[in-house]
Amino acid sequence: MPKRDKTNTDISRRIRNIPPGTSLESFLIHGRHFTEKWDFRHHIIPPQSSSVTYRLDRTERGAKGFQEYASGQAHKTHPIYIYDRLDEPTRGMLEDELAGIEGGDFCVAFATGMAAIAAALGVVLKSGDRVVAHKTLYGCTYSLITNWFPKLKISHTLCDMRDPAALAAAIDDSTRVLYLETPVNPTLELIDLEAVRKVADRVNAKRPDDRQVLVIVDNTFATPYCQRPIELGADIVVHSLTKNIGGYGTDMGGCVIGPHELEGQVLLYRKDFGAALAPKSAWPILVYGLPTLPLRLRRQMQTALEVARFLHGHPKVARVVYPGLENHPQFALAKRQMVTPEGEFAPGNMIYFETVEKDPAQPHNNIKVVDWIARKAYTLTLAVSLGQLRTLIENPGAMTHAAVPEDKRREGGISPAGIRLSIGIESATDIIRDLEQGLAQAD
Ligand SMILES: *Cc1c(COP(=O)(O)O)cnc(C)c1O
């Protein structure tokens, strides 16, 4: 994999046809303005395309389209559209913006985040290979790696990637992928991406080109507004667009962003496994999600800090983890790694906390608090998922991370008394009032 320029944070240098110095925020509202993908010069809002198949004027045009597609040249400025599952204009516009803001060469969008994660791993790994992953992962990613990959003879080693020595020790000759989330879901620990890159570089220095270890980062929690892993050394970024980027909780989606060399493989994988993002779902993410991403996140981060401070001082709360709190064990790393393209500290909108329990193995207060909130709170909703306008609360041990066996959850720092909060855009005062009344139910 060629070395990437990690210092170039001016998006106008990577994206054609936008004025020099354009900020990420303006780009997310206006996009490229002109694109040959679709003539919408006279539209303010891009049309929502809805066409399964495309008229091909001559056999030659059809043949050229297929030939270009198979060679991974589909995402050029004048694509020949053939069939929705191969390539499609609304989804293509979304993909262009996502690749631009993450700093990748290409983006391929999938029906869900899990489809994207399966594709990113699927194009790199084959039977006999190993994936080394952080010990705590999104529940379904954990299940994909530990339940399904062994059937394909793809093995795994889980380690604590916060410790570069532990990571280096986990890598063997069969290892092809280092996979992680940062912040980690749900514990909000951080992994130092530059440190992971250094470990990968040391391993790769001794390997041939076709056996290089690739670093894959799930950037769903932070979004490119708060953290750009490719600038920090990741080879591939995956997202669940269902969460912060979609932002409104109306549509599912996922994407893979990476270096040019892998574009053809990811496109062919999507073509043959079939989980392409529907254009009707790409459209709201492009039209509502991306343009409001900085606005939503700024508001949510401001509220998250207030809520985290409130929880930190609360007698019924044993522990609060928020990367924006000075007491976060990796606060210095948070300040270095989680920043907007303008360089402002951007610790995200997710909070993890644990209730005080008499017997932490048999939590009692955790359930009482969350169940009271589920029934009585106005601004907090008991629901999985995250990154919406509404504040969502859940118990990861019992819900999102239930696929992880109990001993592994404990090893991974997911306490049965843990509660995950995804901060919405309501007033901080109202959220804190609801939490205060919920916590008053604890004994
Ligand atoms: C939700 C989530 C996923 C999976 O995304 P879906 O769109 O639900 O398939 C993957 N990673 C993280 C960190 C998530 O929060």
Explain what you see:
Helix 5 crosses helix 10. The strands form two sheets. A seven-stranded mixed sheet has the order 1-7-6-5-4-2-3, with helices on both faces. It has a five-stranded mixed sheet with strand order 8-9-12-11-10, covered by helices on one side. It is α/β, with parallel strands linked by helices. It folds into two domains: 278 residues, Aspartate Aminotransferase, domain 2; 146 residues, Aspartate Aminotransferase, domain 1, CATH 3.90.1150. 37% of the residues lie in helices and 14% in strands. The N terminus is likely disordered. The site of pyridoxal-5'-phosphate has 16 residues, from helix 5 and helix 6.
Layout of secondary structure:
Layout: H1 11-14, H2 24-30, H3 59-70, H4 89-102, E1 106-110, H5 113-124, E2 130-134, H6 139-148, E3 155-159, H7 164-170, E4 175-181, H8 193-204, E5 214-218, H9 223-226, E6 236-240, E7 254-258, H10 263-273, H11 279-312, E8 317-321, H12 331-337, E9 350-355, H13 365-376, E10 380-382, E11 391-394, H14 406-411, E12 418-422, H15 428-439
Parallel strand pairs: 2-3, 2-4, 4-5, 5-6, 10-11
Antiparallel strand pairs: 1-7, 6-7, 8-9, 9-12, 11-12
Helix pairs in contact: 2-11, 4-11, 5-10, 13-15
Bound molecules: pyridoxal-5'-phosphate.
